[in-house]
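Task card 7
Instruction: Convert sequence to structure tokens.
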Amino acid sequence: MAWLLPRTWVVDEVVTASLLNSHLRDQLLILGAGAHVYHNAAQDIPSGVWTSLAFNSERYDNQGFHSNVTNNSRVTVPTGYTGRYDMWAGWQWAANSNGSRQARFIINGAVIFAQELYAFSGGGSPSVSDGTLSGNFPLYDGDFVEIQVYQSSGVALAINNVAPSSPEFSIQGRGGLPA
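Output:
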């Protein structure tokens, strides 16, 4: 199963179960495919190091995008689900007003698809620092996506566990050709 270009049907064409399955059913499957994962505890992030957020729990995972045990920082596109995907991540840093905070989506451990930078001026300490990142990306069978965070406060900072918003990571199929 792969996303196909829309079919142009012709007059008197015999519509078979095979054609309906490949041009209708299989195309609709990706629209419902996805996962929403979270971590049920805080995660310490060292200063000055890009760190992938871990996710040990699932709100849903209807096609096997995520494992709570193996490589639990990743969501991976299952075979047959090449297409475009909406992604969203949310987190909350522990209070600290020094340095900067950054976040990014990375694909297959290398390709950066979105990145955000939050800078703090020092001085007083904010009570919390929330962050979100979202985007729509083309993904192919076997591609994996991670959300990485970075902070430069000079000390390890936690990504707080605040249900139901931190840390969270969602991927949802939107169909369409990836290119």
